[in-house]
Each structure stands twice: as C-alpha cells, then as structure tokens.
Write a structure and sequence with these properties.
single chain; 233 residues; Glutaredoxin; Glutathione S-transferase Yfyf (Class Pi), Chain A, domain 2; 2 domains; globular
C-alpha cells in the first residue's frame, strides 16, 4: 500500500536522517525515493530550487509536481509537528522551544558544514566518483574544526541524557543525525574528552527512530567503506 508521505533524497543525508527520525517517532508511515545528488534530475530541481535534500511530498495534497511538496529538513519537521502533534518533538515551554530551535540550527549549520563538507564529502563523494578519498582534508577537519563544536555540545549536555528536558526533542535528533555523518566513516569523538556527547549519540543511534535510516546507510556503505578511517592526529 502506498503511503501518503514520500521522502525524496538519500539515506546518507543527515537532513533526511533527521526527518526520518521525526517521522518514526510520530509513527508516520512513509515511502522513500532516491535522488541522485550529484546529478539532480530536472523534476527534482523544480521541487527543490536550491538543490537541497530531502523534500517531502504529501500525496493527500498532490500526487505530482511541486504542489504538495516541502523542501528543507527544518521546514519539513515543522510541518510534521503540525500534521501529527503527538508525540511532540518541540518543547512546549517557550524558552525551551527556542533553545531546541537553536540546537537544531547549530547542528544543521555548524556540524553540517564541518563534518559534512570537511569529512563526509571529501571521502564519500570522491569514492562515488572512483577517486581516492581526500584523507588530508578529512583529518584536518576532524582534529581542528570539529573539536570546538563538540566542546560546546559536551558543555551543553553537562552529563544529562537529553539536551532539553527528559525526552527526545528536535535538538537531540538534529545533533545525532549530524554526528552520525562522521561516525559512519571515522567513528566517534574521544570518549574520555566528550563522554556525555558520545553517550548521547550511542543512545540515539540505538533508538528505534533511527533504525530504518541506519539500515539504509549500512546497505550503501557495506562495500564502499568496509572499514572506518583513522583520522586521529
């Protein structure tokens, strides 16, 4: 049976990972359709004029074309929250809501730019093009650009299981979705320096909401990256 929601993109995208986790937490059924990010088809460019993945289609609104679609993971998650309010992934308290949005943005910009552009792309995009992975760039990013970002998150968690309150919010999902982007290639940050952050990620990765995406990534990376890269100094 065709689901009313379809997600266009790739399971390797941290932004798709975020959206999938939100849909899973809310118990929403959805289909996935892959989009070639290195050569986006014209039909997808019409839906996503900035060339971003994922995009969400609600077939209850429109079956094809740009109608019924939303692009950008934060916009999609905001829509899903309104469409299926419970369980909520955004705190009810106004200040906590603002903090959750800030951490989502911190993950989607800071972590995404450093980890995605500095580690994931130099390795994976090169491998997809049958080139040697740019380990020098990845190693420099791992040792110089990512640690300050991890430091901030470690301090923010301060030993707690969640960034805000006692349950999973968009903040937890967004951070874990981005850390997974580097973990799948190079493992986790040093647990002795970032114990709270590592524990948080391990718990999030094991949560049911990430399992479908985990499986999708594992299928793609099984042959492409059989072993993780050592990016230590």
């Amino acid at each position: 049976m065709t689901a009313s929601l379809v997600l266009y993109g790739s399971p390797l995208s941290p932004f798709q990972r975020k959206v999938e986790a939100v849909m899973a937490l809310k118990g929403l059924d959805y289909d996935c359709e892959d989009v070639n990010v290195m050569g986006m088809p014209d039909w997808y460019k019409a839906i996503s004029p900035l060339g971003r993945i994922p995009s969400l289609r609600d077939r209850d609104i429109a079956e094809d074309g740009a109608a019924g679609t939303i692009t950008d993971s934060s916009a999609i998650c905001g829509y899903l929250e309104k469409r299926q309010p419970e369980p909520s992934v955004y705190p009810a308290d106004a200040f906590d809501h603002g903090r959750a949005l800030w951490l989502e943005e911190y993950a989607d910009t800071g972590l995404a730019m450093a980890g995605g552009m500095g580690v994931f792309r130099p390795i994976i995009f090169n491998l997809f093009q049958r080139k040697q992975p740019d380990i020098e760039t990845a190693r420099k990013t791992w040792n110089e650009k990512l640690p300050p970002l991890w430091d901030y998150l470690e301090h923010y968690l301060d030993g707690r299981s969640h960034f805000i309150g006692d349950s999973i919010t968009i903040a937890d999902i967004s951070v874990a979705a981005q850390i997974a982007q580097t973990e799948m290639l190079a493992g986790l940050p040093d647990k002795s320096r970032w114990p709270s952050l590592v524990a948080h990620f391990e718990a999030m990765k094991a949560h049911d909401c990430f399992q479908r995406n985990n499986a999708g990534c594992d299928r793609i990376l099984a042959k492409l990256v059989p072993e993780k890269y050592d990016l230590g100094a």
